[in-house]
């Protein structure tokens, strides 16, 4: 069975895990503090997600290389994207006019994905976690998986965010 981990890369990293049906199963944020702790956490995270088939990374640089190296070592498919790719697919242009607006829209949209998937509702939702949820949604739909629920369409999802 397929599964996917979406990562909003940073020392403070957002993570979202999707099953092969395209349902969000969990999401979280973690502050690794430094690259050494990040390396250990990446090793442990990918070890604990046995059967993981895809990892989707938003961002680049040395932190992305840590994720890519461990994923490649484990035979996990790596997809690396930019924020513009998933935002352009999931948001209207007017929702992306500045960083603050885009991050607030991401929080709103991520809460809808969480609700549609039946995942536990957050008490608070950091922008890195919200973005990981949406990176994962972009990947699930791009891979042709079914999405958060059987009636999900990107058109109705975007329309509800107006």
Structure description:
- The chain is α/β, with parallel strands linked by helices and 162 residues long.
- The protein has one domain (3-159): Nucleotidyltransferase, domain 5.
- Helices cover 47% and strands 20% of the residues.
- The chain has six helices and five strands, in the order E-E-E-H-E-H-E-H-H-H-H.
- The chain has a five-stranded mixed beta sheet with strand order 3-2-1-4-5, sandwiched between helices.
- Helix 1 (35-48) packs parallel to helix 2 (61-73), helix 3 (83-90) crosses helix 5 and helix 4 (99-117) packs across helix 5.
- The chain is globular, with a radius of gyration of 15 Å.
- The model has no long low-confidence stretch (mean pLDDT 90).
